[in-house]
């Protein structure tokens, strides 16, 4: 004969209320982590753009010195991009579009020339809007130095 086992009240398990509480707490914790990841992604995009801009400026500077050519570096507020063009070879060296979250707000330096000896023809500042926060880039006349400041 088969024995039928009866369920006892002492069996271990979770009630519906306990399960709902755990799911609710998990949902709240995950929602906070989503906002943290979004902020982190924005911060990384800004840092990557600023590093890329610095690298491109150094590249244009090195190109001008090594090839003994004048390089024009231009920023465009209308098309939200920057480019470096060799004046002697009439060839584009760099042409980059700014990410959608980064905008050129103000600039008194639309372009400058890097001469074959490495000097920069103009000086000025540029203000970038990065998701509501501002980054100021100051270009100094002379050896092509620049400073990036967060405001």
UniProtKB/TrEMBL annotation:
Q: Where is the General secretion pathway GspH domain?
A: 51-129
Q: What is its main location?
A: membrane
What keywords does the record list, in alphabetical order? Cell inner membrane, Cell membrane, Competence, Membrane, Methylation, Transmembrane, Transmembrane helix
Q: State the signal peptide span.
A: none
InterPro entries per record: ComGD (IPR016785), N_methyl_site (IPR012902), T2SS_GspH (IPR022346)
Q: Where would you find the membrane-spanning parts of this chain?
A: 20-41
Cited Pfam families: GspH, N_methyl
Q: How does it sit in the membrane?
A: Single-pass membrane protein
Compartments where found: Cell inner membrane; Cell surface
Name this polypeptide is given:
Competence protein ComGD
């Amino acid at each position: 004969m088969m024995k039928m086992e009866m369920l006892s009240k002492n069996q271990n398990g979770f009630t519906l209320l306990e399960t709902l509480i755990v799911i609710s707490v998990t949902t709240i914790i995950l929602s906070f982590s989503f906002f943290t990841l979004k902020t982190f992604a924005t911060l990384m995009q800004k840092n990557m753009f600023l590093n890329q801009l610095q690298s491109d400026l150094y590249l244009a500077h090195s190109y001008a010195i090594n090839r003994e050519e004048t390089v024009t570096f231009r920023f465009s507020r209308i098309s939200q991009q920057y480019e470096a063009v060799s004046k002697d070879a009439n060839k584009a060296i760099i042409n980059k579009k700014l990410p959608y979250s980064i905008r050129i707000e103000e600039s008194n330096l639309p372009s400058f020339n890097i001469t074959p000896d490495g000097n920069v023809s103009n000086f000025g500042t540029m203000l970038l809007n990065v998701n509501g926060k501002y980054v100021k880039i100051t270009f100094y006349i002379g050896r092509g130095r620049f400073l990036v400041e967060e405001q």
